[in-house]
Structure formats: structure tokens, C-alpha cells
């Protein structure tokens, strides 16, 4: 059984190195998935979690008669934003500044981390409190700050667990879903110095509350991500359950918020769409416990300084692809993860990215580029069953983007050519069949050749052992041999 | 009605019985059936694997072969899904507006068997007889691309002698996914394992579906496990009568 | 820094080359025919609000205005509150006489530590949303700064029946003008702080108040 943290270090190290344009390869999905598939505890936990949230989501979505209209509205609003992103960003910058905030632009992870580290140093803070943000995971902020002698403390219960265990999150919404209560108790005993601790979730939560309360009260700087930012008013929103988001965004004197440039919505009113779509799709609640909306700084209430860091880090590349562009609509609800039959079996770590599941399978390769072999394996980590598209609250056609990316990967392989491509069995097979299908006579001949060719594999009317790439099939399944007569031969006989 | 069969390369080569069943069934219902011999493959495997350039001649071929047909009916939800979902995209890729037009023209006349019977012809009882315990697996493409809904179940419920049992977690993918089953064989098997468990739990003798591709995958494991459950295409059940049984 | 900005804007414009120059954002149609105005009568709406807040494991009490003072005193006693934080502008006549009141004043704000040591906080609110059982605070009189409802472990919130709207859309529209003009910080509260991070079993209360009590008041 693999330890979850065995792979932990390289995942993030690699991600930073990739974002820093240092081309290092990540392992492929199939390589990593293999190990996680035999982790029984992970399988059970993830299976339980995804099924529970899936069913709850169906119930709360079922009580919305206008759900499909809201989805369409959400999708169109995002489309509006993407097609006019430059104007919206400038508008956001102006409105945040007008409300007393400062805006910073970061082209990549390195720039963003530099900006944030400098801001923290200005406040002479050695420790900052953070509310869960995948964007900051994406840029490897915690490691970058550590390199500058600043400790970034995760304050979500799950993120705290992951951080203390020096592990990686496995789910967007419930990052520690791969850990069970006894493991968490052991961890808290060791790291929080809590000897007398039961494994009841209430007690574990209480231990985290006590530990973090002190940290919150002493923090000079808070760091958050953003779920949305309103271009028109400069209002930023953080959606959460535990209250640590409220802590991080109200207690410290300085608040730094990092957001991908795609998180914009045009107007305040548009929350009536997104704040209906997000909670029901995400935690499967009518509304999650806390939503904070703030506009710049307010005298006497909350931080005195507010910094908004706008991050590109590959997003403009995604924008440039007309089919792939819709990926930027994502509001990170994780509904697609919870319905995905692949994710349900492999868990999040198999994706080797901070973005797991179906959304990760389309976002990661677009952000990192297709020359990263690991990223390029992700679009193939799907059966195209369409469950993700059906639930996505902003109607991202994930199967369409997956197939589109596969096309780009193959086109690239063809362009590169070379011996490796020419001898690749899939490539050879596809070419051969492609030709066969373009002409009836060739096709009929191919049918006959295949029927003859299979003879050496058929035993007692079935094929149980194939060589090479196809052995993946017969390792666990029998294959039905081609019968003596094709349909067209039968039809021909019947016509006579 | 004059119905053109689009048997698909997969069924033509590997599952001729399904095609024969289509012919028997549609003729029994009083329709004329033809099978244009120039047809080959819809291009789905190429397209979904990323060999999209290779799909262009196949789309061209499809509209040439079926352009004039009154109705095109196929025993494969995923091949019909390919036509409906992606043919216009292929035409766009080819940069050929004429092909795009031809595709738009033909798409509304292409149907999967169960949706054709229930939604187009309005038939719910095809007069079949099939005295077996059957469970039905709704394939992903029939559900989420074609949205056939419960058309196949309506047809099955009206089959005489049948003992139709509900499949738990029916809407979960079986793990086939074309090249996925080979490229990600381990994950595919993990998915298939659960599907097989559910099928066996029903105590059915027969597992039916509207796609032979998924059935080949499911059936491959059923056979390997000597489970005694037979995969059978929906068309073959609907074609059965007292005489054939 | 301006160069990062120029680069990003430049890449965006290059990425969007196919978007026609004359296209306006509004040209992309957004359907707005989802429910925007509730159809329930006042009685239904209040009923639903009470029910949904209750489903989040908050304590809900429906009372008449005249019972306010007694109910508040009783609730505080029941929760073992001795030191109660009170925001600026909260009606003094409702407050119990036998408690230590920690009054938060604009010119003399309570420190974070004082709040942390308090046993609870009492506030009014700006709006209630029945569809989702949500309380909205906009830092107005009687509601106080955001931190007031964050550090104490018990939050007692008072809402008039007339403050409850039916739908989420109505809720957001209600604040549209004030956000556009003054931009007050808004907090939406739906039940007490909660987590499901450990094996997906729900625990009420991690960082925010672990106990939320709502008094729905009729006149
Ligand atoms: S892709 Fe859609 S379903 Fe998946 S996380 Fe993003 S918004 Fe949610």
C-alpha cells in the first residue's frame, strides 16, 4: 500500500519547476493511478465521500425548478467575461483602487510569489495565516515563502491536516478525505502536542480550533484566494464553512488576496446566479455557512491594507484556445470530481496536479503545456462518460475539451514525427485502420485479414492472451473472436 | 418506411447477430430495410483517440452513403453520438462548408434503435418474446449524449416472458471508454469490477445494453469469471419471438 | 510591475483576436428568467426561514416584540453567558440587566482579545433569506464590525419578520445599491460554523461561533 506522502514532495516541487519554465517531467496518470488503485483505505474513503456528496447534490439541485436557466446564465456570464477579459480586468483594478485597495499583476508563479513575499516582509511578519486557496497551491506559495523565512499557516481543518502531515490535498473540497480519524489523531498528538486526544471528529476539530485561535489573534498578515471578484464594484467574495476565511480576511491588519484572472464576474447582481450555483454544486447545501464580501478597505472594520494579486500563470494560453477557453469558466465547485467514475477509483493524487479530477484533466495540460508527458496523459484519463458535463454548474463541456486536447496531442506527435511516432503501435494501428475505412474493398479485405490473423490467439473459441499494448485488455478480460461471417457477408448471401 | 441500416464497422465485423436482429425486427414491424454496402466506420475511435484528421474522409463517406436516406438507424448509441456531437466539428476542421451543410442535413435523420422505435415511430411494444431474467445497463452515450431516457426500458418492459430486474448504480460507467480500456487498463478494470458485481447481484442470466462495445468489455469479464451471465444486445432481445426462442 | 500588467493585457488581446472589435459584453446574452421574485405569502416565508435556519442546527425562536427582553435574558442564561459583547447602535432597552455588557464603540472599539474572552455576542441583522435560511449582516447599526460576530463562541441574532425575503436573488438585489455606492462589507451566515473535513462527518463549529441562535420577532 503506498504511503500518501511518498509522492508528496515531487508533486509540488515539480509543479513549481514547471511553472518556472524548467521542463521536468511528471509521471503519467496511468503510472500513478496503478499504485493508488490498490490502496484500499483511499478507495473506501473516496468512494464514500463522492457518493455521499453526489446524492446530497442531487437532492438540493432537484429542489430548484430554474436550475437549468441558472446554469445557462452562469455559463453565458463567464463567456462574457472571457471574451472581454482585458476590459473587465482594468475595470476591476480601477474599482478596487477606488475602494482603497492595491492591485498587483503577476505573469507567472514566480512573480506572484515575489510580490507576496515582499508585501509580507514590509509588515515584518514571520508567520501568515492562510485560508484554503488552490491558486496559492498552484503557484507553490507556501514553499516560496518558506524560502524567505516566512511560515504560511493553513487554517482550514483539512488543509491544516495535510500541511502537518506534509502531504498533498486529494480533493478540491475535502482535501484530507484520504485520511481517517485515527491517523488525524496521531498527527495532532505529535504535531500539536495534544496527548489526551480522542478520535472523535468534534474533539479533533476542537484541538484545531484552540491551536489556530492563538495564531489568528497574533497574525499581522492574512492570505486568501477569491471565489469571485466583481469588476464593477471591486467586491471580492470568499465562500467557506469553517469561519477561518472570515478570520483571515478580517483579523489581520493586512490582507493579501491572490486570484486567477478568470475569477471575475461583471456585476454585483451576478452573484444571484453564482451564489445559487456554487453552494448546491459544491458542498451540496442550499447555502454554505459563511460568505464574505468586501470592497477594498472599510475604516474601522477589518484590515487596513488590502492587496489584490491578479495571476496569469498560463491562463492566457487557455484563453487563446477557442475550444479550451471554456475551462476558465470553472468556479471550482468540485461537482465533476464527485461524479467522476475514474476519480472515484484513483483519488486525486493520481492526477499529479493541484487540480484533480475531470477539471484537472483539462486544466492542468492547458496550464502546463502538452510537452509535459504527465500533463499530456491526463486527457486520456477519462472514458468520456459525460457525467461531469451533466453536473457542471457553468456547463463546461469537459468531454469535448478532453477530445479536443487529445487531438492536439496527436497532431503534435505527428508533427514531431520521428521513429518513436512511426513505430508507436497505436499510431501505426490508427493509420492502418484509417486507410482501411476509406474504401469498401480495403475495408472488406481488412476484415478478412483480421479474421485470419487472430487465429493464433484463439483458444476454445475465445481470446485470452494478447501481446504488447493489447495485453491490457486480456489481462483481465476475454476477447470475443471475429466470427466466421460478417454481417455484410450474411446480407450478401441473403440478397442472392 | 424505408430504413437504411448503419450497422457500424464494429457490429459488422464482430457482432453480426445484432445486425441480423435489426433486420428481423424492423421487417417484422413492416418496414423496408436496406444496407448500403459502401458504409464502413463512423470514425469515433479515431476522433476520440485524437486522430481527428483521419476522421474527415469518414465523415465525407458517411454523408455520401446516407445523404439520401429517409431514416438511418444504428444499433450503437456511441456511433450515433459521434455523428450528432462531433460531425459538425469535423466538417469545421476540414474547412469545408459544403460538407458542413451535408452534415447538418443528415443528422436529424440518424437514430439509435431504441430512440427510433419509441420516439420516432411511437412504438412501445414490438411483440417480442424472451423468457429470461434480464438486467439492463444504460450505456453512457445512450444516456448522456443521446438522452434516450428510458426508451430501452419501455421496450423491454413490454417483452413477453421477460423477467426484467433493475441494475443497481446502473448509470455508472462500465469503464470501457474505447482506448481507455487499454491505455488505463487498471482503472478500467476497477470500474468494470463494480459493474460486474452489480450485474451478478441481480441474479440475471442476461445483461443487455444498446452498445456492443460496452457489452464486449462487460462480457469479456463475465466470461473470464465464468459467471454464467450472457451479454446480449437490446436488438437481439427485441427481435426474439416464440418461433425463434 | 507595469510590465507584467502590459504583458498580461497583451496576451489577452492576442488570445481574443477572433472576437470582433465591435462586440460588446452585453451582446452575449444572459438568460435572466430564473426566479427573481418569490411567490410565497409572508406567513409561508417566515415559516420557511425558521425551518431552514433550524436545519443548519441553529436554535430558532419565534417571539413577539414584547417578549424580546425576557427571551434574550433567558437565552443568555441558558447558554451560560456572563460577558456579552454588544455592537454600537444595538437597542439598549432589550438588553438584560444582570450581565456584564461589553459595549463596542466607534471611538472605543473592543480589542480582539476582549472579544475572544467574551461568552457571546448579540446583534440585529440586515436581511434574512428564506430559501436558504441565511442571515445577512452589513455592519449597520446594531450589527457591528465583522469581528464581533466571529470571535465569541455564541451568536444571538435578532431579525424582524418583515426583514425576511424569499429568494436568494431578492437578497442580492436588496444590497445592490449600497454595494455600488458605499461598499460595506457583507457577511452571509447560514447556520453555525461547520466542517465535514474529517471522514465527512459534520461537526458544528470550528473557527466561527459554534452556537447560533436566531430570534424571529413579530410586531
Ligand atoms: S469544471 Fe464545472 S463541475 Fe468541475 S469544478 Fe469546475 S465548475 Fe465545478
Give the structure's gist in a few sentences:
The complex is a heterotrimer of chains A (496), B (245) and C (219). Chain A is α/β, with parallel strands linked by helices and 496 residues long.
Describe this structure in words.
Chain B: InterPro entries: Cys_rich_dom. The complex is a heterotrimer of chains A (496), B (245) and C (219). Chain A has 496 residues and is α/β, with parallel strands linked by helices. Chain A has two domains: 1-419, Rossmann fold; 426-495, no CATH class. Helix content of chain A is 53%, strand content 10%. Chain A has helices at residues 8-19, 29-37, 40-62, 67-83, 85-98, 109-122, 134-138, 141-147, 157-164, 181-191, 201-218, 244-250, 271-282, 315-320, 335-339, 341-346, 357-368, 373-377, 387-391, 398-416, 418-423, 425-437, 440-453, 471-474, 487-495, and strands at 102-106, 127-130, 151-154, 221-224, 228-230, 235-240, 254-260, 264-265, 290-295, 305-311, 458-459, 462-463. In chain A, strand 11 (458-459) and strand 12 (462-463) form a beta hairpin. The longest helix of chain A is centred in the first third of the chain and has 23 residues, at 40-62. Chain B is of the alpha/beta class and 245 residues long. Chain B has two domains: 2-120, Rossmann fold (3-Layer(aba) Sandwich), CATH 3.40.50; 133-239, Rossmann fold (3-Layer(aba) Sandwich). Chain B is 51% helix and 12% strand. In chain B, helix 4 packs across helix 6 (97-106). The two termini of chain B are 27 Å apart. Helix content of chain C is 26%, strand content 23%. Chain C is globular, with a radius of gyration of 22 Å. Chain C is built from six helices and twelve strands. Chain C is an alpha/beta fold. Chain C has one domain (35-218): NagB/RpiA/CoA transferase-like (Rossmann fold). In chain C, strand 10 and strand 11 (203-204) form a beta hairpin. The structure holds iron/sulfur cluster (SF4).
Low-confidence segments of chain B, given as residue ranges, are none
Major beta-sheet overview of chain C: 6 strands, parallel
Shape, per Cα inertia axes of chain B: globular
- The total domain count of chain C is 1
Profile the largest sheet of chain B.
4 strands, parallel
Assembly type of the chains comes to heterotrimer
Arithmetic mean pLDDT of chain C:
94
- Helix proportion range of chain B: 40-55%
Amino acid at each position: 500500500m503506498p504511503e500518501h506522502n511518498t509522492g508528496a514532495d515531487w508533486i509540488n516541487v515539480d509543479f513549481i519547476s514547471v511553472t518556472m519554465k524548467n521542463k521536468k517531467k511528471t509521471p503519467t496518470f496511468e503510472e500513478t493511478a496503478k499504485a493508488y488503485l490498490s490502496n484500499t483505505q483511499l478507495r473506501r474513503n473516496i468512494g464514500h465521500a463522492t457518493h455521499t456528496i453526489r446524492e446530497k447534490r442531487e437532492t438540493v439541485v432537484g429542489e430548484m425548478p430554474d436550475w437549468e436557466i441558472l446554469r445557462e446564465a452562469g455559463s453565458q456570464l463567464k463567456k462574457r467575461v472571457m471574451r472581454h477579459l482585458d476590459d473587465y480586468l482594468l475595470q476591476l483594478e480601477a474599482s478596487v483602487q477606488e475602494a482603497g485597495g492595491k492591485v498587483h499583476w503577476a505573469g507567472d508563479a514566480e512573480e506572484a510569489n515575489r510580490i507576496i513575499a515582499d508585501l509580507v516582509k514590509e509588515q515584518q511578519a514571520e508567520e501568515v495565516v492562510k485560508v484554503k486557496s488552490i491558486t496559492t497551491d498552484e503557484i507553490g506559495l507556501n514553499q516560496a515563502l518558506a524560502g524567505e523565512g516566512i511560515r504560511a499557516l493553513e487554517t482550514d481543518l483539512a488543509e491544516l491536516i495535510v500541511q502537518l502531515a506534509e502531504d498533498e490535498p486529494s480533493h478540491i473540497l475535502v482535501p484530507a478525505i484520504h485520511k481517517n480519524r485515527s491517523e488525524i489523531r496521531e498527527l495532532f498528538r505529535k504535531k500539536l502536542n495534544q496527548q489526551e486526544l480522542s478520535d472523535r471528529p468534534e474533539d479533533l476539530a476542537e484541538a484545531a480550533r484552540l491551536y489556530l485561535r492563538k495564531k489568528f489573534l497574533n497574525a499581522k498578515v492574512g492570505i486568501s484566494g477569491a471565489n469571485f471578484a466583481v469588476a464593477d464594484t471591486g467586491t471580492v467574495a470568499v465562500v467557506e464553512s469553517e469561519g477561518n476565511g472570515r478570520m483571515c480576511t478580517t483579523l489581520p491588519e493586512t490582507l493579501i488576496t491572490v486570484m486567477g484572472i478568470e475569477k471575475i464576474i461583471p456585476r454585483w447582481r451576478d452573484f444571484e446566479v453564482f451564489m445559487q450555483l456554487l453552494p448546491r454544486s459544491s458542498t451540496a447545501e442550499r447555502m454554505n455557512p459563511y460568505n464574505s464580501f468586501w470592497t477594498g478597505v472599510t475604516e474601522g472594520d477589518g484590515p487596513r491594507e488590502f492587496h489584490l494579486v491578479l495571476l496569469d500563470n498560463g491562463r492566457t494560453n487557455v484563453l487563446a484556445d477557442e475550444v479550451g477557453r471554456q475551462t476558465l469558466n470553472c468556479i471550482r465547485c468540485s461537482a465533476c470530481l464527485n461524479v467522476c467514475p475514474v476519480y472515484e477509483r484513483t483519488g486525486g493524487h493520481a492526477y499529479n496536479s493541484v487540480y484533480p479530477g475531470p477539471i484537472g484533466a483539462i486544466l492542468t495540460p492547458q496550464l502546463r503545456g502538452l510537452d509535459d508527458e504527465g500533463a499530456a496523459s491526463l486527457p486520456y484519463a477519462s472514458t468520456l462518460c459525460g457525467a461531469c458535463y451533466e453536473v457542471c454548474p457553468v456547463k463546461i463541456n469537459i468531454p469535448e475539451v478532453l477530445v479536443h486536447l487529445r487531438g492536439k496531442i496527436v497532431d503534435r506527435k505527428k508533427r514531431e514525427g520521428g521513429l518513436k511516432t512511426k513505430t508507436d503501435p497505436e499510431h501505426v494501428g490508427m493509420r492502418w485502420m484509417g486507410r482501411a475505412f476509406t474504401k469498401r474493398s480495403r475495408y472488406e479485405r481488412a476484415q478478412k485479414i483480421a479474421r485470419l490473423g487472430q487465429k493464433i490467439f484463439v483458444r476454445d473459441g475465445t481470446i485470452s492472451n494478447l501481446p504488447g499494448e493489447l495485453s491490457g485488455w486480456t489481462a483481465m478480460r476475454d476477447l470475443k473472436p471475429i466470427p466466421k461471417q460478417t454481417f455484410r457477408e450474411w446480407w450478401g448471401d441473403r440478397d442472392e | 418506411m424505408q430504413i437504411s441500416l448503419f450497422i457500424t464497422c464494429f457490429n459488422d465485423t464482430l457482432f453480426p447477430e445484432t445486425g441480423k436482429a435489426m433486420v428481423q425486427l424492423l421487417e417484422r414491424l413492416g418496414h423496408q430495410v436496406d444496407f448500403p454496402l459502401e458504409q464502413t466506420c463512423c470514425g469515433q475511435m479515431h476522433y476520440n483517440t485524437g486522430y481527428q484528421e483521419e476522421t474527415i474522409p469518414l465523415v465525407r463517406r458517411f454523408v455520401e452513403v446516407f445523404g439520401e436516406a429517409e431514416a438511418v438507424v444504428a444499433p450503437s448509441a456511441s456511433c450515433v453520438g459521434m455523428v450528432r456531437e462531433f460531425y459538425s466539428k469535423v466538417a469545421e476542421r476540414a474547412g469545408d462548408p459544403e460538407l458542413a451543410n451535408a452534415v447538418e442535413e443528415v443528422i436529424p435523420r440518424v437514430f439509435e434503435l431504441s430512440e427510433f422505435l419509441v420516439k420516432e415511430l411511437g412504438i412501445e411494444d414490438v411483440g417480442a418474446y424472451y423468457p429470461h431474467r434480464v438486467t439492463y445497463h444504460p450505456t453512457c452515450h445512450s444516456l448522456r449524449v443521446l438522452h434516450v431516457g428510458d426508451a430501452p426500458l419501455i421496450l423491454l418492459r413490454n417483452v413477453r416472458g421477460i423477467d426484467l430486474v433493475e441494475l443497481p448504480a446502473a448509470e455508472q460507467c462500465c469503464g470501457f471508454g474505447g482506448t481507455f480500456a487499454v491505455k488505463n487498463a487498471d482503472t478500467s478494470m476497477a470500474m468494470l469490477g463494480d459493474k460486474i458485481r452489480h450485474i451478478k447481484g441481480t441474479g440475471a442470466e442476461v445483461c443487455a445494453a444498446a452498445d456492443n462495445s460496452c457489452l464486449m468489455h462487460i462480457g469479456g469479464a463475465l466470461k473470464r469469471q465464468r459467471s454464467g451471465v450472457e451479454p446480449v444486445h437490446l436488438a437481439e432481445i427485441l427481435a426474439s419471438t416464440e418461433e425463434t426462442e | 510591475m507595469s510590465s507584467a500588467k502590459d504583458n498580461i493585457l497583451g496576451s489577452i488581446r492576442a488570445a481574443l483576436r477572433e472576437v470582433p472589435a465591435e462586440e460588446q459584453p452585453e451582446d452575449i446574452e444572459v438568460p435572466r428568467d430564473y426566479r427573481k421574485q418569490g411567490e410565497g405569502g409572508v406567513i409561508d416565508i417566515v415559516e420557511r426561514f425558521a425551518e431552514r435556519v433550524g436545519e443548519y442546527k441553529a436554535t430558532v425562536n419565534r417571539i413577539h416584540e414584547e417578549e424580546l427582553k425576557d427571551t434574550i435574558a433567558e437565552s443568555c442564561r441558558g447558554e451560560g453567558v456572563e460577558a456579552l459583547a454588544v455592537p454600537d447602535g444595538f437597542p439598549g432597552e432589550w438588553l438584560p440587566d444582570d450581565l456584564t455588557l461589553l459595549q463596542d464603540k466607534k471611538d472605543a472599539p473592543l480589542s480582539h482579545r476582549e472579544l475572544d474572552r467574551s461568552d457571546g455576542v448579540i446583534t440585529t441583522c440586515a436581511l434574512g433569506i428564506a430559501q436558504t435560511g441565511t442571515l445577512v449582516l452589513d455592519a449597520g447599526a446594531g450589527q457591528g464590525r465583522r469581528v464581533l460576530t466571529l470571535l465569541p463562541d455564541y451568536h444571538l441574532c435578532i431579525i424582524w419578520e418583515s426583514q425576511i425575503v424569499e429568494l436568494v436573488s431578492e437578497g442580492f438585489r436588496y444590497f445592490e445599491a449600497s454595494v455600488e455606492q458605499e461598499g460595506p462589507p457583507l457577511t452571509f451566515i447560514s447556520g453555525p460554523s461547520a466542517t465535514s473535513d474529517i471522514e465527512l462527518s459534520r461537526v458544528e463549529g470550528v473557527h466561527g461561533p459554534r452556537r447560533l441562535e436566531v430570534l424571529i420577532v413579530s410586531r
